[in-house]
Every structure is written in structure tokens, then in C-alpha cells.
Amino acid sequence: MTSKRNIYIASCVFTSRYPILSQKIQKYVTEHYGMEIVRCCVPNYKLQIFTDKMPVDYQDIWQGLPDTGEFAAGDNVYTLCHNCLAIIEETKREVNERSLWEYISEDESFPFPNYKGRTVTLQDCWRTYDRRPEQEAVRAILDKMNIQVVERLDNFEKTNFCGYTLYEPCIPRNAAMAPRRFVDQAEGKFIEHTQEEKQTLMEAHCRTFETDEVVAYCHYCQAGLELGGADVIHIAGLLFEPEKYGGKKVIS
What we know:
By secondary structure, the chain is an alpha/beta fold. It contains 12 helices and 8 strands. The protein has one domain (6-244). The mean pLDDT is 93.
């Protein structure tokens, strides 16, 4: 009998933007969970473009990782990228796909940093609006880090936010490989706007927050919130780089 594999998709977009943070996550899931690391959910997707955005001393390591997984029935595939989750869900139905946050939230041995009761607004993401287990896992993780969450009225399944990406054409790969998510469920989204219009929309959204800090668990949401002027932190940073954000414990 072939053993089922645990595979972590590191995400080309996330890693190109946060290469050091991504390496910390990859190291942790390899050493503590025994996961295999692959770069992306599809072969050779804009490999050189994303690689060129990374530090030179990491480029060879990144290109040396498996391009993608030979996903087989029963394999467990984890990622923090919602594009990857959607594509795996629609193209590899025999695979068990989950967000990384679901795995970490269930890990009793994870050294959750202590943020001493600070209060943040949580920004839910449209790309995962119907993934209640992931949404609940994010909230459980924040609770374990002693972070108080202020909920938005448009939270959980009501969210229609994913930064400025919903105000520009959909990536053709996403529409082709995950049409249910990015075409059928995307009515009124992915309509082209000017850069000035995007910034105006993001600034208006950010004015609705009731707290100084916002936490996102989507790199597209984070980019949009940054454009709008919010003080936003990705949940991955809170977990794996607490020294930057006032957390009590530091993961080596």
C-alpha cells in the first residue's frame, strides 16, 4: 500500500514577497510535521519572474525545490495561498486540501507567541469566504496568541474583500483552472479599475476599521490594506516572526 504524503505548497506569490518568512515556515513544517515542500500548485508558473524578486542567496534554493507535487489520491496538501487551495480543490478532487492555519490551530505543541491582549480587527478574505474551518482556525490561532479580535460586520461568508485584486482582471490561469471560484462565484468582481480608483477604494475601506491594527491571512488582502494606509500584519508574521511585532516567544 502506498503511504499518503503530507505536502506543503510554499506559494510563489507569498514567497516572492516574504522570502525570509516563507523560509521559516518551510523549515518549521518540514522539521515538525515532516511535510514535503513544493513551490506551487501548477508546474513552472512564472518561475523566473517570482525568483527574480527574491534575495540572490535564496534564488537557487527556491529553484531547487520541486516545481509542484505529483498529488495522488489521499495525499494531504496544505498551503496559505487561497489560489492554490481553489485550484487544488477543482483539479485534484481526490486530494485532501486544507489551509496551513487549520493544521497549526490543532497543534498543541506549537509555541504560540503571547501578544498580551492586544486588540486587532480581522480582515476576512473573499477567496476563502466559504471555508469556515479556515476562518475559525485563524480566530483560534489569534486567541491562542492572546490577541483580541474585533469582528467586521462583513465577516465570514459575507466578506467581499481581497485587496485591490478584485478591481483588476482575473489571472487567466486562475479562471481556467478554478472556474467555479473565479468565474461562477465572481459576479461583479475582477473588473478593471485605474490605479487611482483602486487606491481610493482601498482608502475608503480602511477608514471603516475601528482599531489601529488589522490582521490579514491573505497576501492579496494585505497588499490592498497597505495601499489603503492600514497598519496591517499578516498572521504568518505574528506566528513566525513575533520579535517584529512584540510577541513574547521567538521561533528559531
